[in-house]
Amino acid sequence: DRFKAAVHEKLESYLHSIIAERREEVAAAEAKVMAERARQTLMEELKDGRTFHELLKAVPMEEEELSQRLLELVEKGAIRAEQKGRSVVYVAV
Predict the structure, then answer these.
(1) How far is CA 66 from CA 16, 55, 77, 90, in A?
(2) CA 85 → CA 2, 25, 81, 89, distances in Å?
(3) Bridge-partner residues for 87, per DSSP?
(4) What is the pTM (predicted TM-score) of this model?
(5) Which pLDDT belongs to residue 1?
């Protein structure tokens, strides 16, 4: 009985560790999918040109993340920032 209990306990512990690993893998995969969707939405919005605040409303990203992403895209030459009146409009190249 003690042997069975010890084996059962070890098996249960092993299964819990596998389940935890899989949950982490699923969470990472979901985060990757969400990031890709956000990137696609951002690039779609940039085709017509949008201000930062318009993008913030349309794209599922936090303000800091969006700001950083726009800066990277401008530096890479994928988009340009144009002054239109008081606003800066970001447009895909």
Answers:
(1) 37, 8, 16, 12
(2) 79, 47, 13, 10
(3) 84
(4) 0.70
(5) 86
Contact 39, 55 (CB under 8 A): no
pLDDT band with cut points at 50, 70 and 90 for residue 31: very high
Residue-wise pLDDT for 51-84, tens only, equals 999 999 999 999 999 999 999 999 999 999 999 9
Cα dist from 37 to 2, 32, 53, whole Å:
52, 9, 19
| DSSP, residue by residue, 8-65 | HHHHHHHHHHHHHHHHHHHHHHHHHHHHHHHHHHHHHHHTT-EEHHHHHHHSSS-HHH
